[in-house]
Specification:
The protein is mostly helical. About 75% of the residues lie in helices and about 0% in strands. The chain contains 15 helices and no strands. The two termini are about 25 Å apart.
Length: about 375
């Protein structure tokens, strides 16, 4: 077992909590966006579409950098077997608990009250299974990706730990080189997707393949980058030092993201261009989020500690609450901005009430955290 002590970096906790909680405004704004979702408002809102696009364009890339950072830290602290056990428990148990408790009821809600699934009785057995896969995994997809990356991390982190590269090796790394590396990763992902689109397009419509393979490959570079930021201080230093052109690059990448979403189509190069733009914006937003977080949020706060502890539970329960709000309340509120703000109050309010309730039930605390309860 290798032990490594380091002063707690509170800004990582803050960023991680806020990224998770951004899932609520993301999905509530999705109702009012031009994107087709399980539920949509009668008339979309331009500014809420932009808000939704902005959150979607960078949030999970930054999240997986932080996840890789802490995953590698724990890998150094525990034996490999214990690390795998702890990580799979913390990720797998909440996911497995959320399927029967949250996403299965959500599936029946969507099936009964929306037209998303269509005529269930006319679907083939495969189509029914695939529809179930998409909706049962649903917003839990990032937990499935974390499971895949954890299993891959057994090999990747072992290689990284045993690498003879000196800690000062990356002292000359700059944002230009890092951007080129991520650009190449995005082009590789786009090439894989385009080849699949040509030779096996049915795979791209398979929910399990999309979540378990394509999403895992997309976020793999960010997960590895986070682990390298723990091992090599020069990379972490690069992340927390504000660089003006990454701020400008993020803004330009967002403009390109919106243009691609607006003017491209799914049977064209929409997804490949989206991968390039999203990966680049995600990388540059790492600098934006980390540098601002390091400057403004790097102190202990009981409020942030509470949000860190609550963030996973809030994320897990917010999705069915958002769909409930979209089905029963959105049609009654004609003003989109008012509806969006009311939706935030509705979803956050009930989610935090449920969080407080679950804290008082040891079995629920275990199921939604994966941690043994004293």
């Amino acid at each position: 077992m290798t032990k490594k002590t380091q002063q707690r970096e509170y800004f990582f906790d803050s960023i991680r909590a806020y990224l998770m909680l951004l899932g609520v405004p993301f999905h509530v704004s999705l109702i009012y966006s031009t994107q087709s979702w399980s539920v949509n408002s009668p008339v979309p809102s331009e500014w809420l579409t932009l808000l939704n696009d902005f959150i979607h364009a960078f949030r999970m890339q930054v999240f997986f950098v932080i996840s890789g950072y802490f995953s590698y830290m724990l890998f150094l602290r525990y034996s490999r077997q214990h690390w795998v056990k702890v990580r799979l428990e913390r990720i797998g148990i909440p996911m497995l608990a959320a399927i029967p408790l949250l996403t299965l009821p959500q599936f029946f809600l969507i099936k009964a009250w929306t037209t998303k699934i269509g005529n269930w009785s006319s679907l083939s057995l495969y189509d029914k299974f695939n529809a179930l896969t998409w909706d049962l995994i649903s917003h839990l997809w990032f937990l499935l990706v974390l499971i895949v990356l954890t299993l891959a991390g057994v090999w990747m982190f072992k290689w990284l730990r045993e690498s003879k590269t000196a800690k000062t090796e990356y002292s000359d790394l700059n944002w230009t080189r890092l951007s080129i590396a991520i650009l190449l990763c995005s082009l590789a992902w786009g090439t894989v997707r385009r080849l699949l689109f040509i030779v096996a397009p049915q795979l791209l419509g398979n929910g399990l393949f999309n979540y378990g393979v394509m999403q895992s490959l997309f976020y793999l570079p960010f997960f590895i980058l986070g682990a390298m930021a723990w091992k090599y201080p020069a990379i972490k230093g690069l992340f927390v030092k504000p660089v003006p052109w990454t701020f400008i690059g993020s803004a330009l990448a967002f403009v390109a993201y919106v243009a691609n979403q607006t003017y491209n189509r799914g049977d064209g190069w929409l997804y490949e261009i989206d991968a390039v733009v999203s990966m680049m914006m995600g990388l540059w937003m790492v600098n934006v989020a980390f540098s601002l977080g390091h400057r403004l949020l790097n102190s202990h706060s009981p409020r942030v500690t509470y949000l860190v502890n609550a963030s996973l539970f809030i994320y897990l329960v917010h999705h069915p609450l958002t769909i409930l709000y979209g089905i029963f309340f959105v049609p009654e509120i004609s003003n989109n901005t008012l509806g969006f703000l009311t939706g935030l109050v509705f979803v956050f309010g009930i989610a935090f009430i449920l969080y407080e309730f679950h804290l008082r039930v040891p079995l629920l605390r275990f199921l939604f955290s994966g941690k043994p309860q004293r």
